[in-house]
Amino acid sequence: MKANQRDYAQAARNAGAKCRLFFFCGQDEAGASAAVAKLVAGLPDAGERVDLSGSELRSDPSRLVDEARSTSLFGDVRHILARVSGEEAHDALLSWCELVDRGEVDQGWPIFIIATSATDKSRSAKLLIKRDDALVAIFYPPDLRSVTADVRAMADAAGMRLDGSLGETIARAAGLDVRLAQSEVDKLALYLDASPRSPKTADQAAWDAIGASTEEDGFMPLVNAALGGELGKLPRELARMREVSLNPVGVALAMERRAAQLAMLAPKLRRGDDMKQFLRANGVFFKEHREVGDQLMRWSGGKLERLVPRLADLHRSLLANSQTAELLLAREITQITRYAAARR
């Protein structure tokens, strides 16, 4: 089965219990992760989560089936979550398909795969699209309008009415990342003591009290310094990251989002195009024209193909090493900035 980021939930409901494997791909890793969290929350009993990486599945393709058929010491329920890049899971998926077809994975645990840099045209996706027991969903980079709508839906569920353009403000502050936006909405609801039974109106003053008050408190100055090769600004931005306690995972996600945006724009750009007109025609926010235009000139399609999975690997590394996440992020950002600076 095949779906997209808007109808995957309906497709999953229609498939019911017979769908045991979910392959979520595309450039919007945040959206795919949020979708997996939503589906897991809807399981009758999600149980224990078993985490697998792309490198584990690539080196040991049988691991996926082994985990799908395994039981814990106490026979607890479980589900499997694999974060992979590109085609890292292909051989593991091929093995899963073959064994399922032979009836050797009856009642296996549900499997969720988030495949950064893969598409619905990838070899991995093609193994699954025509199967009734698997769902492939493609997640495209969201735009401001769609994330703003998501933020308003989150607020409604939390018992809040968002005043004026606050929904758009939260979407921008989260870097169009729905997970970060959900976190901000949750904080705002807690601050206002809002709930569906006791709804409250959230205004700019409440947002300023719990969130970043200016753009300088956000992720994008650091992201732009790195992808723009601005070595002179980098030390100041890294110091700011520590001073205001920016979330390293949030910074990495913002970089992934910008890299995905560049990867979407780069194939459309033709020699001789007027950059401002090109960016305007492709829906880039006007305040970001200078940074996005400069970064497009630095990162060609081939370089972006390597940057996107590298950032996905960085994201996974930060999640696995929370105690040293800030150091890991600073080191990787420095290397990326030096590379971008060399391409002036």
From TrEMBL:
InterPro entries: DNA_pol3_clamp-load_cplx_C, DNA_polIII_delta, P-loop_NTPase. The keyword Transferase applies. It catalyses: DNA(n) + a 2'-deoxyribonucleoside 5'-triphosphate = DNA(n+1) + diphosphate. Keywords: DNA replication, DNA-directed DNA polymerase, Nucleotidyltransferase, Transferase. Its EC number is 2.7.7.7. One of its GO terms (molecular function) is DNA-directed DNA polymerase activity. One of its GO terms (biological process) is DNA-templated DNA replication. It is an enzyme of class 2 (transferase). GO terms for cellular component: DNA polymerase III complex. Belongs to the DNA polymerase HolA subunit family. This is DNA-directed DNA polymerase.
